[in-house]
Amino acid sequence: MNIALPVAIEQQMQTRKKQFAYDEDAYLIGKGGYTTAAPYTLYDAIVALALGKNVLLKGPTGAGKTKLAETLSYLFGQPMHSINCSVDLDAEAMLGFKTIQEREGKPVIEFIPGPVIQAMTKGHLLYIDEINMAKPETLPILNGVLDYRKTLTNPFTGEVVKAKSTFGVIAAINEGYIGTVPLNEALKNRFIVIDVPYIQGDALKDVLRAQSILKDHSLIDRFVMLSADLIVQVQSGQISETAASIRALIDACDLAVYLPPLRAIERGIVEKLEDDREKAAVRNIAETLFE
């Protein structure tokens, strides 16, 4: 990471790395790898998290929000528990559930903590993906977790759970996406909001070289050009964000090692789209760059 951080922030990161080096959940630490042409995206997220702020990553689908969250986990050396939001998300999926266990030959009721309570009690990170996909009535249970109190009254046990000082929350949001709802202002106000732009140019080249098995530099350059053209179409409203997803682009690059590029793009990008007009638009762009 070629970012000069304030000494106090760097010390905070090193302290956490030492603290969690031998944590039983160390396997949950992210692998890192987030790259961007806008270095302050990462810098600002690091500072906010080190200061104990909740971080909301806002950006188009496939821009690298999850990879940024994993990179923060990696840089702090801190395990990260995850919640994938949907309309079916409920309190049990977030907090945990009761179950019957056998102890010394007798059935006893035990509470199995979920990702929120595990992250709080262990001082880990909590990643809430696509937070605006959850039903609005589901999230208020986290209000006390996300403000200065960092506490939660567990509705299943009546216990008041207090988070450890290193506990942190990272959430991701895709605005205007199908199935999403606007975040409640009281909830959004509990976060530091960081825009995560599309990765482009040399930064995208670095990502493709690091995360794809494609090693042909000439082909990689053309895939970077394809991405730039797709982003222009997304920004003008001609195609959906799915078409410009970095994940989909990496899939196409991987396939291009063994398939002709146009067929790789068909499998990795085009067929993920639903609209025939969008499919045709992507094909037309690809055909101008690949023979």
Key descriptive features of the protein:
two-stranded antiparallel ribbon; 42% helix; alpha/beta; Rossmann fold; 5-stranded parallel β-sheet; 2 domains; single chain; 291 residues
Task: Give the helices and strands, then pairings.
Elements: H1 7-20, H2 39-50, E1 54-58, H3 65-76, E2 80-84, H4 91-95, E3 96-103, E4 106-113, H5 115-122, E5 125-129, H6 143-146, E6 151-153, E7 160-162, E8 168-173, H7 185-188, E9 191-195, H8 201-211, H9 217-235, H10 246-255, H11 261-268, H12 276-289
Parallel strand pairs: 1-8, 1-9, 2-5, 5-8
Antiparallel strand pairs: 3-4, 6-7
Helix pairs in contact: 8-9, 9-12, 10-11
Plain-language structure description:
The protein has 291 residues and is an alpha/beta fold. It has two domains: 7-195, P-loop containing nucleotide triphosphate hydrolases (Rossmann fold), CATH 3.40.50; 201-289. It is 42% helix and 16% strand. The chain has twelve helices and nine strands. It has helices at residues 7-20, 39-50, 65-76, 91-95, 115-122, 143-146, 185-188, 201-211, 217-235, 246-255, 261-268, 276-289; strands at 54-58, 80-84, 96-103, 106-113, 125-129, 151-153, 160-162, 168-173, 191-195. A five-stranded parallel beta sheet has the order 2-5-8-1-9. A hairpin with a 2-residue loop joins strand 3 and strand 4. Helix 8 (201-211) crosses helix 9, helix 9 (217-235) runs antiparallel to helix 12 and helix 10 packs antiparallel against helix 11. The longest helix is centred in the last third of the chain and has 19 residues, at 217-235. The two termini are 37 Å apart. The model has no long low-confidence stretch (mean pLDDT 90).
